[in-house]
Amino acid sequence: GSGNEAQTACLRFQSIRVVGVDVNPDVLAFQLANGWPAGQPLLCGALWNGRDASVEMSNSRSDLLHANVYHQEEHPDGLSDIALSQSPTLAWDQLDVEYGPFEDAVLWMDIEGSEPEALEGAAGLFRRRAVLVANLELMVREESRAWGARRMAWVDQFMSDNGMVFVKDWNASDSCRDRVWMRGDK
User: Fold this and answer.
1) Which single residue of 32, 54, 176, 178 could bond 86 by disulfide (Cβ 3.0 to 4.6 Å)?
2) pLDDT in tens, 135-156
3) Is the dihedral of CA 39, 122, 50, 115 positive or negative?
4) Nearest to residue 123, comparing CAs of 20, 47, 19?
5) CB under 8 A, 24+ apart: contacts of 7-13
6) What is the pTM of this model?
7) 132, 142 Cβ separation under 8 angstroms
8) Are 50 and 91 in contact (CB under 8 A)?
9) What is the C-alpha separation between 55 and 33, in angstroms, rounded?
10) CA–CA separation, 182 vs 109, rounded Å?
């Protein structure tokens, strides 16, 4: 929601390029008003599998104004009262063509629920071994624990199948945790 990881990385490593994506216009405005790196693209959309589509997004009512994807067939119990809206989709591979090519890329995703779809949209990057590190913030909320566990298992298998090695979990809380993978040859 704050984009602070990208901002910090750009200050420390001035030669890197960042492409930011968020579904919430309020978050984009916050980022632009609070130090988003000049000249770095900041796009409105949902990371997805590359099919020309839109997805239903819901405001999580958090102070960070981040949004979560909820799949109707798997919707976690207890969250059905959240208002939904449509958001356009973007894929990592599509962003690679438009803003890349990405090499030794770091995929930093705080999307808590649509990781499989976003990773499917990065299949080309993984095939050509362009992803060096991936950090995904995964949902582990009590009301969606089984749902999140299935998706986390899918992510772990996808990463392993694509030569990525689990490094560590960090930033663990009752609602989410970040999981880091690194390309196995590094």
Assistant:
1) 54
2) 998 876 666 677 777 888 899 9
3) negative
4) 47
5) 7/35, 7/36, 7/37, 9/106, 10/37, 10/40, 11/37
6) 0.82
7) no
8) yes
9) 27
10) 14
Q: What's the CA angle centered on 122, arms 110 and 63, to 5 degrees?
A: 15
Instruction: Kindly report the three-state secondary structure assignment for every residue of the chain.
Output: CCCHHHHHHHHHCCCCCCCEEECCHHHHHHHHHCCCCCCCCEEECEECCCCCCEEEEEECCCCCCCEEECCHHHCCCCCCCCCEEEEEEECHHHHHHHHCCCCCEEEEECCCCCHHHHHHCCHHHHHCCCEEEEEEEEECCHHHHHHHHHHHHHHHHHHHHCCEEEEEEECCCCCEEEEEEEECCC
- Residue partners of 44: CB distance under 8 A and separation at least 6: 21, 22, 23, 25, 28, 87, 88
Locate 75 and state its tokens. 């919707």
> In the predicted model, is pLDDT for residue 55 greater than 70?
no
> Alpha-carbon distance 109 to 91, whole Å?
12
Q: Which residue has the tokens 């958001």?
A: 87
